[in-house]
Amino acid sequence: MEIVHHGGAEGVTGSCHRLRLSARDSFLVDCGLFQGRDHGPGDTLERHAIEFPVEDIRALVVTHVHIDHIGRLPYLLAAGFDGPIICSKPSARLLPLMLEDALRVGFTRDRQLIEPVLETIDERLVALDYNAWHALPAEDAALAPRVRLQRAGHILGSAYVEFDFREPGERRSRRVVFSGDLGAPGAPLLPAPKPPRRADTLVLESTYGDRLHGDRRERAARLRAAVEHAHANGGTVIVPAFSIGRTQELLYELEGLIHRGNRRWRDMEVVLDSPLAARFTEVYRELKPFWDAEAHQRLRAGRHPLDFENLYTVDDHDTHLQTVDYLARSGRPAVVIAASGMAAGGRVVNYLKAMLEDERHHVLFVGYQAEGTPGRAIQAAGRGGHVELDGEGYAIRAGVDSISGYSAHADQADLLRFVRGIRTGPQDIRLVHGEPHAREALWELACKRTG
Description:
The chain is of the alpha/beta class. The chain has helices spanning 44-48, 67-70, 73-78, 89-106, 111-124, 216-232, 246-260, 263-266, 275-286, 293-300, 317-330, 348-355, 374-381, 412-420, 436-446, and strands spanning 2-7, 16-20, 26-29, 57-61, 85-88, 125-128, 134-135, 146-151, 159-165, 174-178, 201-205, 236-240, 269-272, 311-313, 334-338, 362-365, 386-389, 392-395, 399-402, 428-432.
């Protein structure tokens, strides 16, 4: 058995890991795009081309549908991969939406070119229930592994992956676990991940391996304070958010604040200005059975945490431009949630261009900002600094704040609890999906257990 990393081992993005059981049988876990500094120099198409052999890959297992975990899937198909694409049932609903958007933005808007790729993916998808073993194909039947998906609590449909197989001459099976991205306990909408009972080898994410998030009450208080500060100044709160996961959690939390708030809160508009995020939010509503108990309690009380009265969705581009202009001038209290989450493109860039140089407004980061992205540059510079957007320089006069607790990623303590909660093992831990300082900090604590 060998694990080979084709991305996500030295940085946060581009996750792609190969579990090789023999020269003829390998299994891929995720195949994501590189972003920010991980992207490196050179042409985008060249950077994302599949340069590793695919003939022995019997199946691709997808942990979740964020683009840094699935974005190279079209390249993988182009390289000749012809096996099944395995994921959870919610991910099977969400994955085509995410890839359709990625194809339109990154390649072409020509549906005649996009639709064959999406049709191929749809034909290959194998949607699994959580906590159920599934037999995988293999050339060597004696090595054929089983795979099981468990809830990861990161975004809807996210899973960590358990492989179970028996190597030649071994009486006991071997268990290899890939964490994918683990969620933070207490996050809205989704139940927290529970550690596996056993892992001989654990491939563990380390995005926030060097820091702790605040608890949920503290996060909500900081969100409320940021919104009230901007509104007292007659400004807008701009939240660059990923279309799936963070957006829905924010809507859930804002509905709670509006429900408990005063008249000013009840008059506030929440603007969801991302067609993709709106589509994901609609699917989230349809997949209520996968929500956690707290969310179902709100539903029973007659509340609609992802479809409330103050929520205004912007669809077409003309309306988007009108909304940017109106909010930049009017001072109407509003929270704008727009993609992309790292401000590397999308509609949020227009809001930033219109509002960054106006001290009335506020930029609120609620997720990880990769090195080399505009989001990280704004976050690092803060008020009084400068940032370049689409080749033009902007002075940052708006307020800038970050609430890491709304990240969909587990923090250091959560990751350690996950490791320590494994009853048997692991003897081998491999840290991925983190910058060097985060991996090093987590290694000092988590990997002491294995020696």
